[in-house]
Structure formats: structure tokens, C-alpha cells
Amino acid sequence: MAGRLQDKVAIVTGAGRGIGAAIARSFAAEGAKVVVAERNSETGAAVAAGTGGVFVETDVTEQDQVEAMVRTTLERFGRIDVLVNNAGANVFYRPHEMPRSEWARCMSLDLEACWALSEAVLPNMRQQAAGAIINIASTHGFKIIPQTFPYPVAKHGLIGLTRALGIEYAAEGLRVNAIAPGYIDTEIARDYWAGFDDPDAERRRAEALHPPRRIGRPEEVAMTAVFLASDEAPFINAETIMIDGGRSALFHD
Ligand SMILES: NC(=O)c1ccc[n+]([C@@H]2O[C@H](COP(=O)([O-])OP(=O)(O)OC[C@H]3O[C@@H](n4cnc5c(N)ncnc54)[C@H](O)[C@@H]3O)[C@@H](O)[C@H]2O)c1
User: Fold this and answer.
1) Nearest CA to ligand 1 atom 2
2) Helix, strand counts (H, E) of the chain
3) What CATH superfamily classification does 9-181+217-241 receive?
4) 152 Cβ inside 6 Å of ligand 1
5) What's the pTM?
6) How many other CB atoms sit within 10 Å of the CB of residue 74?
7) Rounded to whole angstroms, what are the CA distances from 60 to 88, 109, 184, 238, 240?
8) In angstroms, what is the span from residue 233 Cα to ligand 1's centroid?
9) Separation of 89 CA from ligand 1 center, angstroms?
10) Residues 93, 151, 169, 183: which is the catalytic one?
11) Mapping DSSP to helix (H, G, I), strand (E, B) and coil, where does residue 82 land?
């Protein structure tokens, strides 16, 4: 039986681990040809091998590497159907304590690179009159947690980018959407808990914040990415889907 993404060519950035790796695996399981655009050659190559995809070592903040990766994808597969802008990192400070260089690092990776990648695939997608771009934003794109600056600024911007490009190219057959994950069980979360005296207690505290009494799994984000990349979502555009177990709808008393 054909997969839900059968023969679609998909670039997934930062797919060496975490949410990106789960997306790459789910896409491959649904028949997509996956290009793993990852900075870490060890993890990137391993995920690509596991998915039968192609690894192209890419630092998404380097314009020449972005362009080279898109060229390689087109040489290899002749088309690009899906771009997932997933590579990102937490950059967390109190605003007045943040070195200015950290602002630049955050904006460059969490926002500007998503535009650079989009810009690089647009000519091909516009020529095909088809394509789906999926930006991995965050619940930080809607709500503010103190001492996480400037990450939420970049993620608010990424939702703005999603809506702007979604509107601009809708009549040409393109769809641009975002996913806003909440607390997801990845190495970032585990590293964060490890910084506490009692990592298990901190994990339990995180779980208790969520109505389902657990945090999310990378595979649960990947399921939504498959849906948005597939032909099952033809009229969903310029939208952001929240995946947080309902935490953001909860009124804390
Ligand atoms: N984990 C969460 O709870 C969570 C919640 C909301 C949003 N997100 C977002 O999801 C995305 C993935 O997060 P994750 O938790 O899987 O992170 P992660 O740190 O586990 O994985 C990020 C991947 O991106 C790669 N990467 C980093 N900089 C790169 C660069 N310049 N070029 C290419 N690759 C690069 C890393 O090597 C790594 O493989 C990020 O955009 C993050 O902001 C994560």
C-alpha cells in the first residue's frame, strides 16, 4: 500500500536527533525520500541511514551550505515537495543579562535560517506550483515564560513568517504551516532536568503541569508533521497547530 507521503521529497533540518529525527523516521515510514540537513555529521548520517534517506551536512545558519544542500537535493531527486524547518535551540536569559551575541545566535538559528531555507526552496516549489513548508515553532510563540529571552521573540517571529509566506504563495499552490510543540521529551528536556538536584522530581513537576499528566513525545509532533505534509491537509494554510496536551488552554488557579 502506498504511504501517505509516497515518493514526496522532504528536507528536514536538524534531523539528527529529537523532534527532527522523529519527523524524518515518520516521513520515511510513509514513503517519503528524506534529506537529513543536519550540522552534526555523526547523528545526521545515522538517522539518514536508518531511514534510507540522504544526509547532507548542513549548518542552516550558513547561506552557502543551505544553497549547496538544496542544489544537492535537486540533483539527486529533481524536486522538493516538503521543507521542515526544525533545527533550533533554546537561548534563555533574563533580557538585561543577555550578551548581545546571544540575541544574534538565537535569531540566526531560530528565525532567520527558516527564511533562508524557505527562500532557497521557493523557486522550485513555485515552478512545481506545489509544496508544503512546515516550521517547528513552539508554545513560546504564543506565551511568555520569564527568563527565556530571546527564544520566544524568535518563535513569535517564526509564526509571523509562517503566516506571511502562507498568504503570499497560497494562490501558487504552496502551503506554509507551523507546529507549536509544548514540553516534549527530548534530550534538551533531559539535559535541563539533569541540572536540578533531583532530576526525577523536576520531571514529575513538568508532567503535573499538563492536563494529561505527562509531557509530549517527539513521535506525537511527527504525526502532525506527516499530516501537514500530506495531501490530507490541502486547505490548511498559514496555520499553527499547538501540541501541548491542552496546557495552554488551562487556567491556573
Ligand atoms: N523539545 C521541546 O520540548 C521543544 C518544544 C517546543 C519547540 N521545540 C523546537 O523543536 C525543534 C527541535 O527541538 P529538539 O528538542 O528536537 O532539539 P534537539 O536539540 O534535540 O535537536 C536539534 C537538532 O538540530 C541540530 N542543529 C542545531 N543547530 C543547527 C544548525 N545550525 N544547523 C543544522 N542543524 C542544527 C542539532 O544538531 C540537533 O540534531 C527546535 O526548533 C525547538 O525550538 C522543541
Assistant:
1) 184
2) 9, 9
3) NAD(P)-binding Rossmann-like Domain (3.40.50.720)
4) no
5) 0.98
6) 15
7) 10, 7, 22, 23, 22
8) 25
9) 5
10) 151
11) strand
**Active site annotation includes 151:** yes
- Cell numbers for 68, please give them: 549547496
Residue 45 in contact with ligand 1 by CB distance below 6 A: no
Q: Residue 1: what pLDDT? A: 84
Distance of CA 15 to the CA centre of its chain: 9
> Mean pLDDT throughout 226-232?
98
Centre of ligand 1 from the C-alpha of residue 18, in Å: 7
Element (H, E) at 242: strand 240-243
Q: Does pLDDT of 252 surpass 90?
A: no
Q: Which residue has the least CA distance to atom 23 on ligand 1?
A: 14
Q: Is the CB of 40 under 6 A from ligand 1?
A: yes
For the chain, the structural domain boundaries read: 9-181+217-241, 185-215
Going through 31-182 in order, the beta strands assigned E by DSSP cover: 33-38, 54-57, 82-85, 92-93, 131-136, 149-150, 174-181
